[in-house]
Amino acid sequence: MPELPEVETIVRAYRARLEGRRIVRFVARVAKQAQPSVTALRWGIVGKRIKRLWRRAKYIVADLQGGQRDAAPASKVHGQTSLSVAPTRSTTHGQASLPMATRDGRDTGRCMRHADGHLLIHLRMSGGFDWAAEHDREPPYVRAYFDLDDGNRLLFCDARKFGLVIYTADFEAATSHLGIEPLERGFTTGALEALLRGRARQLKPLLLDQSVITGLGNIYTDEALFQARLHPTRRSDRLARQEIRRLRTAIQAVLRRGIRHHGTSFDGVYRGGGMRKHLKVHGQAGLPCKRCKTPIEALRIAQRGTYICPRCQPLDGNC
DNA sequence: TGGTATGTTCCAAA
DNA sequence: TTTTGGAACATACC
Length: 319
Prior knowledge:
single chain; alpha+beta; four-stranded antiparallel beta sheet; globular; DNA-binding
Protein backbone atom coordinates (compact mmCIF):
# COMPACT_ATOMS: atom_id res chain seq x y z
CA MET A 1 0.00 0.00 0.00
CA PRO A 2 2.16 2.75 1.15
CA GLU A 3 3.97 5.26 -0.96
CA LEU A 4 4.08 8.93 -0.10
CA PRO A 5 0.40 9.71 -0.81
CA GLU A 6 -0.81 6.75 1.26
CA VAL A 7 1.43 7.65 4.19
CA GLU A 8 0.36 11.28 3.96
CA THR A 9 -3.28 10.19 3.91
CA ILE A 10 -2.83 8.10 7.04
CA VAL A 11 -1.04 10.91 8.84
CA ARG A 12 -3.83 13.34 8.05
CA ALA A 13 -6.48 10.83 9.09
CA TYR A 14 -4.89 10.06 12.48
CA ARG A 15 -3.39 13.42 13.36
CA ALA A 16 -6.36 14.86 15.26
CA ARG A 17 -6.76 11.77 17.42
CA LEU A 18 -3.07 11.33 18.19
CA GLU A 19 -1.63 14.80 18.68
CA GLY A 20 -1.66 15.75 22.32
CA ARG A 21 -2.17 12.18 23.49
CA ARG A 22 0.18 10.47 25.88
CA ILE A 23 1.29 6.90 25.22
CA VAL A 24 0.63 4.92 28.39
CA ARG A 25 1.46 1.43 27.18
CA PHE A 26 3.16 -0.20 24.23
CA VAL A 27 3.01 -3.86 23.28
CA ALA A 28 4.95 -5.46 20.44
CA ARG A 29 4.01 -8.95 19.39
CA VAL A 30 6.76 -9.37 16.80
CA ALA A 31 10.06 -8.46 18.36
CA LYS A 32 11.95 -7.88 15.13
CA GLN A 33 9.50 -5.17 14.09
CA ALA A 34 10.42 -3.07 17.15
CA GLN A 35 13.69 -1.17 16.94
CA PRO A 36 16.19 -0.85 18.43
CA SER A 37 14.46 -3.45 20.63
CA VAL A 38 11.09 -3.90 22.30
CA THR A 39 12.59 -2.83 25.62
CA ALA A 40 14.35 0.24 24.27
CA LEU A 41 11.30 1.26 22.27
CA ARG A 42 9.00 0.99 25.26
CA TRP A 43 11.50 2.90 27.34
CA GLY A 44 11.68 5.59 24.72
CA ILE A 45 7.99 6.22 24.11
CA VAL A 46 5.86 5.21 27.10
CA GLY A 47 4.89 8.16 29.25
CA LYS A 48 5.53 10.66 26.49
CA ARG A 49 3.12 12.92 24.71
CA ILE A 50 2.73 13.05 20.93
CA LYS A 51 3.49 16.66 20.18
CA ARG A 52 3.12 16.42 16.43
CA LEU A 53 2.30 13.76 13.85
CA TRP A 54 3.80 14.24 10.43
CA ARG A 55 5.51 12.48 7.53
CA ARG A 56 9.09 12.26 6.37
CA ALA A 57 9.59 10.18 3.23
CA LYS A 58 7.49 7.05 3.83
CA TYR A 59 7.83 7.26 7.59
CA ILE A 60 5.04 8.30 9.91
CA VAL A 61 6.77 10.47 12.50
CA ALA A 62 5.55 11.31 15.99
CA ASP A 63 7.50 14.05 17.73
CA LEU A 64 7.52 13.08 21.38
CA GLN A 65 7.66 15.32 24.36
CA GLY A 66 8.40 14.88 28.00
CA GLY A 67 8.17 11.85 30.18
CA GLN A 68 6.98 11.06 33.62
CA ARG A 69 8.96 9.73 36.54
CA ASP A 70 7.03 6.51 36.22
CA ALA A 71 7.01 6.69 32.46
CA ALA A 72 8.95 3.58 31.67
CA PRO A 73 7.51 0.56 33.41
CA ALA A 74 11.01 -0.68 33.97
CA SER A 75 10.32 -2.94 36.90
CA LYS A 76 7.62 -4.73 34.93
CA VAL A 77 10.01 -5.83 32.26
CA HIS A 78 10.89 -9.26 33.41
CA GLY A 79 14.23 -10.68 32.54
CA GLN A 80 15.69 -7.22 32.06
CA THR A 81 17.30 -6.63 35.40
CA SER A 82 19.34 -3.76 34.08
CA LEU A 83 16.11 -1.87 33.60
CA SER A 84 14.89 -2.41 37.11
CA VAL A 85 16.68 0.74 38.15
CA ALA A 86 13.96 3.34 37.90
CA PRO A 87 14.73 6.74 36.43
CA THR A 88 16.24 8.85 39.17
CA ARG A 89 16.22 12.56 39.80
CA SER A 90 17.96 12.97 36.47
CA THR A 91 14.47 13.01 34.99
CA THR A 92 14.10 16.46 36.42
CA HIS A 93 16.35 17.73 33.73
CA GLY A 94 14.86 15.50 31.19
CA GLN A 95 17.12 12.53 30.99
CA ALA A 96 17.52 9.15 32.57
CA SER A 97 19.79 6.28 31.89
CA LEU A 98 19.10 3.36 29.63
CA PRO A 99 21.38 0.42 29.15
CA MET A 100 22.50 0.16 25.60
CA ALA A 101 24.58 -2.27 23.65
CA THR A 102 27.29 -1.35 21.20
CA ARG A 103 27.37 -2.61 17.67
CA ASP A 104 29.40 -5.63 18.68
CA GLY A 105 26.89 -6.42 21.36
CA ARG A 106 28.72 -5.31 24.50
CA ASP A 107 26.72 -3.56 27.14
CA THR A 108 28.09 -0.09 27.63
CA GLY A 109 26.23 0.40 30.84
CA ARG A 110 24.17 3.45 30.20
CA CYS A 111 23.40 6.29 27.91
CA MET A 112 21.01 9.20 28.22
CA ARG A 113 17.27 8.86 27.91
CA HIS A 114 15.98 11.87 26.08
CA ALA A 115 12.89 13.57 27.37
CA ASP A 116 11.72 14.01 23.81
CA GLY A 117 12.77 11.83 20.90
CA HIS A 118 10.81 10.51 17.97
CA LEU A 119 8.63 7.54 17.14
CA LEU A 120 8.99 6.45 13.52
CA ILE A 121 6.74 3.95 11.82
CA HIS A 122 7.43 2.48 8.41
CA LEU A 123 4.57 0.53 6.86
CA ARG A 124 6.68 -1.24 4.23
CA MET A 125 4.49 -3.53 2.10
CA SER A 126 1.36 -4.10 4.13
CA GLY A 127 1.38 -2.04 7.32
CA GLY A 128 -1.41 0.20 8.50
CA PHE A 129 -3.20 1.70 11.51
CA ASP A 130 -6.54 0.88 13.01
CA TRP A 131 -8.52 1.60 16.17
CA ALA A 132 -9.32 -1.25 18.49
CA ALA A 133 -12.64 0.28 19.51
CA GLU A 134 -13.95 0.16 15.96
CA HIS A 135 -14.10 -3.62 16.00
CA ASP A 136 -16.08 -6.10 18.04
CA ARG A 137 -13.19 -8.48 17.83
CA GLU A 138 -9.56 -7.72 17.24
CA PRO A 139 -8.83 -7.35 13.53
CA PRO A 140 -6.28 -9.69 11.95
CA TYR A 141 -2.54 -9.09 11.82
CA VAL A 142 -2.18 -6.82 14.84
CA ARG A 143 1.60 -6.76 15.37
CA ALA A 144 1.79 -4.03 17.99
CA TYR A 145 -0.44 -1.55 19.77
CA PHE A 146 -0.30 1.71 21.66
CA ASP A 147 -2.60 2.51 24.56
CA LEU A 148 -3.32 6.21 24.87
CA ASP A 149 -4.25 8.34 27.84
CA ASP A 150 -7.77 8.87 26.49
CA GLY A 151 -8.47 5.16 26.65
CA ASN A 152 -8.08 4.50 22.95
CA ARG A 153 -5.89 1.77 21.56
CA LEU A 154 -4.05 2.39 18.29
CA LEU A 155 -3.31 -0.83 16.43
CA PHE A 156 -0.39 -1.41 14.13
CA CYS A 157 -1.52 -4.09 11.67
CA ASP A 158 0.81 -5.67 9.16
CA ALA A 159 0.10 -8.97 7.41
CA ARG A 160 3.59 -9.39 5.99
CA LYS A 161 5.52 -8.31 9.09
CA PHE A 162 7.92 -6.11 7.14
CA GLY A 163 6.89 -2.88 8.82
CA LEU A 164 8.96 -1.22 11.52
CA VAL A 165 8.23 0.66 14.73
CA ILE A 166 11.27 2.66 15.74
CA TYR A 167 12.23 4.90 18.62
CA THR A 168 15.13 7.27 18.15
CA ALA A 169 16.58 10.01 20.31
CA ASP A 170 18.49 11.33 17.31
CA PHE A 171 16.04 12.00 14.51
CA GLU A 172 18.68 13.52 12.24
CA ALA A 173 20.87 10.45 12.43
CA ALA A 174 17.94 8.08 12.01
CA THR A 175 16.83 9.81 8.80
CA SER A 176 20.18 10.90 7.40
CA HIS A 177 19.98 8.26 4.66
CA LEU A 178 16.88 9.86 3.15
CA GLY A 179 16.93 12.01 0.04
CA ILE A 180 14.98 15.07 -1.00
CA GLU A 181 11.25 15.53 -0.32
CA PRO A 182 9.59 15.88 -3.74
CA LEU A 183 6.75 18.09 -2.51
CA GLU A 184 8.94 20.60 -0.75
CA ARG A 185 10.26 23.89 -2.05
CA GLY A 186 13.77 22.60 -2.54
CA PHE A 187 12.66 20.14 -5.19
CA THR A 188 13.37 22.39 -8.14
CA THR A 189 14.30 21.48 -11.69
CA GLY A 190 17.87 22.42 -10.83
CA ALA A 191 17.88 20.18 -7.77
CA LEU A 192 16.50 17.26 -9.76
CA GLU A 193 19.00 17.92 -12.53
CA ALA A 194 21.87 17.67 -10.07
CA LEU A 195 20.51 14.40 -8.69
CA LEU A 196 20.07 12.90 -12.17
CA ARG A 197 23.34 14.03 -13.68
CA GLY A 198 25.30 13.03 -10.62
CA ARG A 199 24.90 9.38 -11.52
CA ALA A 200 24.46 7.17 -14.55
CA ARG A 201 21.52 5.04 -13.60
CA GLN A 202 18.29 3.93 -15.17
CA LEU A 203 15.49 6.36 -14.34
CA LYS A 204 13.11 3.96 -12.67
CA PRO A 205 15.47 2.42 -10.11
CA LEU A 206 16.86 5.87 -9.45
CA LEU A 207 13.41 7.29 -8.70
CA LEU A 208 12.71 4.33 -6.41
CA ASP A 209 15.94 4.96 -4.49
CA GLN A 210 14.88 6.60 -1.21
CA SER A 211 18.34 8.00 -0.64
CA VAL A 212 17.93 10.14 -3.75
CA ILE A 213 14.25 11.16 -3.81
CA THR A 214 11.86 10.04 -1.08
CA GLY A 215 8.29 8.91 -1.29
CA LEU A 216 8.02 7.38 -4.75
CA GLY A 217 7.23 3.69 -4.95
CA ASN A 218 6.48 1.37 -7.80
CA ILE A 219 3.06 2.75 -8.70
CA TYR A 220 3.76 6.48 -8.64
CA THR A 221 7.11 6.03 -10.38
CA ASP A 222 5.35 4.40 -13.33
CA GLU A 223 2.74 7.14 -13.37
CA ALA A 224 5.31 9.93 -13.18
CA LEU A 225 7.42 8.49 -15.99
CA PHE A 226 4.34 8.09 -18.15
CA GLN A 227 3.22 11.65 -17.57
CA ALA A 228 6.74 12.91 -18.31
CA ARG A 229 6.87 10.70 -21.42
CA LEU A 230 10.14 9.11 -20.37
CA HIS A 231 11.12 5.48 -20.75
CA PRO A 232 12.03 3.91 -17.38
CA THR A 233 15.40 2.67 -18.56
CA ARG A 234 16.57 6.03 -19.91
CA ARG A 235 19.89 6.96 -18.34
CA SER A 236 19.65 9.63 -15.69
CA ASP A 237 22.62 11.62 -16.97
CA ARG A 238 21.35 11.81 -20.54
CA LEU A 239 18.12 13.73 -20.11
CA ALA A 240 17.66 17.08 -21.75
CA ARG A 241 16.84 20.01 -19.50
CA GLN A 242 13.33 20.06 -20.89
CA GLU A 243 12.85 16.39 -20.01
CA ILE A 244 14.05 17.02 -16.47
CA ARG A 245 11.57 19.85 -16.17
CA ARG A 246 8.78 17.54 -17.33
CA LEU A 247 9.86 14.88 -14.86
CA ARG A 248 9.84 17.26 -11.92
CA THR A 249 6.38 18.50 -12.83
CA ALA A 250 5.10 14.95 -13.33
CA ILE A 251 6.45 13.66 -10.00
CA GLN A 252 4.75 16.45 -8.09
CA ALA A 253 1.53 16.11 -10.07
CA VAL A 254 1.09 12.37 -9.56
CA LEU A 255 1.90 12.61 -5.85
CA ARG A 256 -0.50 15.49 -5.32
CA ARG A 257 -3.17 13.68 -7.29
CA GLY A 258 -2.59 10.61 -5.12
CA ILE A 259 -2.99 12.63 -1.94
CA ARG A 260 -6.11 14.28 -3.28
CA HIS A 261 -7.67 10.86 -3.87
CA HIS A 262 -6.45 9.51 -0.52
CA GLY A 263 -4.00 7.09 -2.05
CA THR A 264 -4.28 3.88 -4.00
CA SER A 265 -6.10 0.82 -2.71
CA PHE A 266 -4.32 -2.37 -3.52
CA ASP A 267 -4.71 -6.11 -3.10
CA GLY A 268 -7.22 -5.80 -0.32
CA VAL A 269 -4.67 -4.81 2.32
CA TYR A 270 -5.35 -1.11 2.15
CA ARG A 271 -8.85 0.03 1.30
CA GLY A 272 -8.60 3.71 1.84
CA GLY A 273 -8.13 5.54 -1.39
CA GLY A 274 -9.67 6.08 -4.75
CA MET A 275 -6.52 6.82 -6.73
CA ARG A 276 -6.70 3.35 -8.27
CA LYS A 277 -9.14 4.39 -10.93
CA HIS A 278 -7.03 7.37 -11.87
CA LEU A 279 -3.91 5.36 -12.69
CA LYS A 280 -2.95 5.77 -16.33
CA VAL A 281 -0.43 2.98 -16.85
CA HIS A 282 0.34 1.05 -13.67
CA GLY A 283 -1.47 -2.27 -13.76
CA GLN A 284 -3.07 -1.43 -17.11
CA ALA A 285 -1.27 -3.92 -19.37
CA GLY A 286 -3.07 -4.43 -22.64
CA LEU A 287 -5.44 -1.53 -22.15
CA PRO A 288 -5.24 1.39 -24.58
CA CYS A 289 -3.02 4.29 -23.60
CA LYS A 290 -5.13 7.21 -22.39
CA ARG A 291 -3.12 9.51 -24.62
CA CYS A 292 -2.53 7.61 -27.88
CA LYS A 293 -4.53 4.33 -27.65
CA THR A 294 -1.43 2.15 -28.02
CA PRO A 295 -1.73 -0.91 -25.74
CA ILE A 296 0.09 -0.50 -22.43
CA GLU A 297 3.04 -2.88 -22.05
CA ALA A 298 4.19 -4.70 -18.95
CA LEU A 299 7.94 -4.89 -18.42
CA ARG A 300 10.27 -6.11 -15.73
CA ILE A 301 12.73 -3.44 -14.62
CA ALA A 302 14.85 -3.68 -11.51
CA GLN A 303 12.79 -6.72 -10.51
CA ARG A 304 9.68 -4.61 -10.39
CA GLY A 305 6.59 -4.89 -12.51
CA THR A 306 6.70 -1.84 -14.76
CA TYR A 307 4.07 -0.42 -17.09
CA ILE A 308 4.64 1.92 -19.99
CA CYS A 309 3.12 3.17 -23.17
CA PRO A 310 5.69 2.13 -25.78
CA ARG A 311 4.69 4.97 -28.04
CA CYS A 312 4.53 7.79 -25.51
CA GLN A 313 7.65 6.60 -23.71
CA PRO A 314 10.12 5.67 -26.44
CA LEU A 315 13.65 4.64 -25.58
CA ASP A 316 14.90 7.25 -28.03
CA GLY A 317 13.29 10.03 -29.94
CA ASN A 318 10.26 11.96 -28.83
CA CYS A 319 6.63 11.24 -28.33
C1' DT B 1 1.07 -25.15 -7.19
C1' DG B 2 3.39 -21.22 -8.81
C1' DG B 3 3.79 -16.52 -9.64
C1' DT B 4 3.07 -12.00 -8.01
C1' DA B 5 2.70 -8.27 -4.63
C1' DT B 6 2.58 -0.78 -2.85
C1' DG B 7 9.32 -1.79 0.38
C1' DT B 8 14.03 -2.17 1.90
C1' DT B 9 18.54 -4.17 2.53
C1' DC B 10 22.42 -6.99 1.72
C1' DC B 11 25.66 -9.29 -1.17
C1' DA B 12 27.66 -10.69 -5.44
C1' DA B 13 28.57 -9.81 -10.11
C1' DA B 14 29.38 -6.85 -13.94
C1' DT C 1 33.84 2.78 -7.67
C1' DT C 2 29.38 2.51 -9.45
C1' DT C 3 25.54 0.09 -11.04
C1' DT C 4 22.70 -3.89 -11.54
C1' DG C 5 20.67 -8.42 -10.40
C1' DG C 6 19.14 -11.70 -7.16
C1' DA C 7 17.76 -13.20 -2.80
C1' DA C 8 15.67 -12.52 1.47
C1' DC C 9 12.11 -11.03 4.73
C1' DA C 10 6.38 -13.26 5.70
C1' DT C 11 2.02 -13.66 4.07
C1' DA C 12 -2.05 -13.39 0.97
C1' DC C 13 -4.23 -13.78 -3.23
C1' DC C 14 -5.29 -15.15 -8.04
